[in-house]
Amino acid sequence: MRFLTKYFFWCLFIPVTAFSQEIDERLTYLEQKPPSMTPEVFAPGLISKNTESEFGSVFNAKATAFFYGVDMGGRTEIRYSELIGNTWSAPRTILSHEKYGFNDPFLSPDEKRLYFISERSLDGSGAKQDHDIWYVEKEGNKWSEPINAGLNINSSSNEYYMSFTQEGTMYFSSNKRTPGEKQNSFDIYTSKSINGEFQKAMKLGESINTSNYEADVFVDPAETYVIFCARRSDGLGRGDLYISFKNSDGTWTPSVNMGDTINTENHELCPFVSKDGRYLFYTSNQDIYWVSTKVIDELKKSK
Questions:
Q1: pLDDT beneath 50: ranges in the chain
Q2: HEC states along 262-300?
Q3: Which end of the chain is more exposed for a tag (fewer CB within 10 A), N or C?
Q4: Domains in the chain: ranges and CATH
């Protein structure tokens, strides 16, 4: 039996109504007007604020529950908003701590786990020098105390940003091969889940990983493409989004820059595609943006 600390008890109470109610589609996605093929700031003033930096974000499959990370001057926390009846709740903090941060929330395929990254020590007593991947499990209308994803995922270096195939394979990034280069040498890995246990992580090949920085990977649940952040010589800014498509033989096409429709002179990162396949969310210039996934269709046609 896991028991929450006093701090986490109130932090992790999340009613599950947003996951089960009948939905009026007009109320989904925080009632925001859908974007075209031109990216727009998502929910300006409500989610994306000038006074804060917003990062990783994820909706549940019905687009009635929204989790996102916020950086407030170096301290990161995870916030949540849900559709209750016909009204979205005001965003509230659900994961926060004075000694360590939480960021990059992502739901498991069955939505019974919420994954995230944190520099939390294993016993929760303080912060350590690197980030691990953690999760909480749904227990009725609450979430459990944070659980470390284990040694097949985490190392003594940094592990960042995770996403999942529909079978439960985790895609994530790590700099464990180059631990001395804390910020500039991340690669993308995968780990299959067998009987609920993550297997030894495998590094993806040269179509995706290079000697440069590759991180913040989103994998299409059907595993037909990946989108990730990279810093390369053909980039437009401090970090751009790249895409690679899976061939029929299981190999990946050489990754390509997603172009100036998405990328700017700023830093683009934290990609997420909604479960209905309609919208690409990502962070740019410290705000969350969204755009029609027709931009992905166009890139696939040109490959």
A1: 1-10, 182
A2: CCCCCEEEEEEECCCCCEEEEEECCEEEEEECHHHHHHH
A3: N
A4: 6-302 (2.120.10.30)
Please write the tens of the pLDDT for every residue from 204-234: 999 999 999 999 999 999 999 999 999 999 9
Token digits for 228?
A: 């990730």
User: What is residue 209's three-state secondary structure?
Assistant: coil
Tokens linked to 238: 């401090």
pLDDT for position 18: 56
Per-residue pLDDT tens over the stretch 248-259 = 999 999 999 999
Give the pLDDT score at 183.
Answer: 55
Measured distance CA(136)–CA(100) in Å, rounded: 16
For residues 10 and 94, give the distance between their C-alpha atoms in angstroms, rounded to a whole number.
Answer: 8
Query: What is the distance between the alpha carbons of residues 53 and 285, in angstroms, rounded to a whole number?
Result: 8
Provide the H-helix boundaries in the chain: 6-11, 17-20, 294-302
Residue 44 is classified by DSSP as B
268/188 Cα distance (integer angstroms): 17
- Write down the pTM of the prediction: 0.92
**Long-range contacts of 126-129, Cβ-Cβ distance < 8 Å, separation of 24 or more:** 126/99, 126/100, 127/99, 127/100
Contact 104, 69 (CB under 8 A): yes
Residue 260 identity: D
